[in-house]
């Protein structure tokens, strides 16, 4: 179970129970203290059953109900018993449940009926009567043929429509009038009883042995022996009659399960049981021949039926278990496999179970073969362990593809997995999925469908499955790595999304700087696309064969809101971010991102989820590059101050020092993310991907690479991301302030110089025409001091957050390198510790 699913279940549970704990605390407790792989032992279950039976008002009924559920092979029955046992020992939960039961129980004492209610009551009584009569008619048929009519569409059941066709004691079969057996001597009664037994043993009515009607279609049939039969003969007949009960159960099973809506596995098993019934009928015919020749007595009959008594009893038990558990498909095979293991000391019984198993496995193994050799599911009754959910249409795959295909298109249904295939169900799923991808690429499959048979030695079918999986994985891996050039695609994505192509980013920023500084509503998407195409042609990216797949995109929310929305999934804050709408105040630089068009089958790797991760990393890096460029432009424009007199230049010293500290901070952030995080993870990723053996391993390596980059770039740590975003916004505000004021101090200090000199420092740079800022209301020195204080306080918060991270936690060890770079030679911690850090924090907060 995933962590998100566990969190959701715990949250729903806490909403129903009075508890002060938070979902996060309970989830952490469950993950640390509960072993999901722990299986309840048989002795522990029996101990719990005995305890619960003693506590119940009717111990015998409780034990019978447990035995009934056990025969039905209910999943996780032992764990449910353990849960009930724990609840029974917790007085608080018992009191809470009792209060809820009393609160929810309807009270009929206060219900009053008026004359207006009479027509409605009359109508309900008529409807109930009609339903009861219908049920009675159906039950009369069920007593003849056994099983109820399934709700699924099916062909007509001739056994139900023509009860006389059934070989299971049809009441419509004529019975000859019998004479009172008490008038017949005891020596002659034996021949009469043998004749009756020969009829009873093949489902025909008899004179002095009566088959009882069934109350339940799957119960064992009972018989009544005439009370005037000699006691010694009665005892012998009682010993033989269970064979007729076994026959009745098997006959009902075959008559019902032959219908196709019960599945191909049940059909095949019923056919095999029919063959056993045919052999059994032949045996009864031989007994009848012996009887006609006068060589058969009840004692001899009891001796002759021993072999069939044992084998038919085993078949009857299997049929009863399948009927009561309503099993089909893989669950039937699991029950048969358990019986094979259960009769390990009885070779004859085990061989019989193997015969039934091999017959029932034939259609299932055909489905398995079509799946692992051709990637095709032929499962009309939903018996196979793999299910096609059809979440993505084939014609939509090359254009708009999502990760839902790989994760949800084909899924494992655990209740349909046969026990003997549990060790390999994972590679069974992958083999068919790989072949589906290959077929949808238009490639032909050279492998042939091999016949897979069930054997007691599992190596026969396990080796065949592993061989088919090896072919599928190698074929798809070769298609993705060589024909589709996966490594080339990965390098292309790294060039653009991870800013690996430096000259392209510089060229693109130079061309798009004016456009990106506008409001997102004022930006024309086609303009950005044309500038992107021009940047690709003017830079070294022109040599990239996949450059034409790069696109521009303007997202509706900024990066910080996007990350908070993602990180709030399955938490209390999710509702706050679920209804986030498009902001009208976003700048283009805050909403800009690249997108990448990838076609099948590489869209398996570059799906929407992975591209979204690339976009988040790109937006973070690109915005840092944009801020760095703005700070560098301020530096270029401030070079004119070198011509100022010393007395005039001193007032700008603090602004230039702050600018340099901002540039140092932004460049070290970029260095940390690009050199210390992305590049090492990229090298490890390439090493891993060179050793993979299937596409699933590629997906795992790729997802791990992206997750590590997101984490070490501080995108998944909300409080750090908020501080970094605030730092960058302070830098942007400072740069805009300097751009607004630079023209004034240049004119003041260099008014006597030519205009060409005054404009040379700002050639090609656009002066931002923003509205008045709070920092502009005071003097230049006061504004710079305010920016300095705000920047320093925010940076100190960032350093404190990083420093407070547990150093023993290896998940964030790279962040400490950033700490040492930003606080080189303890510049901030030493200087402001001496000045009074508490005073600084107080000034910053208020």
UniProtKB/TrEMBL annotation:
What's a Pfam family this protein contains? Answer: GCP_C_terminal
Q: Which InterPro entries does the UniProt entry name for this protein? A: GCP (IPR007259), GCP_C (IPR040457), GCP_C_sf (IPR042241), GCP_N (IPR041470)
Q: Does the keyword Membrane apply?
A: yes
Question: Keywords assigned by UniProt?
Answer: Cytoplasm, Cytoskeleton, Membrane, Microtubule, Transmembrane, Transmembrane helix
Give the UniProt subcellular location, in the record's own words.
Cytoplasm, Cytoskeleton, Microtubule organizing center
* Span list, region Disordered: 136-155
Xref: PANTHER family: GAMMA TUBULIN COMPLEX PROTEIN, GAMMA-TUBULIN COMPLEX COMPONENT 2
**The protein's name in its UniProt record:** Gamma-tubulin complex component
Q: Which organism is it from?
A: Nicrophorus vespilloides
Name the gene.
Answer: LOC108562173
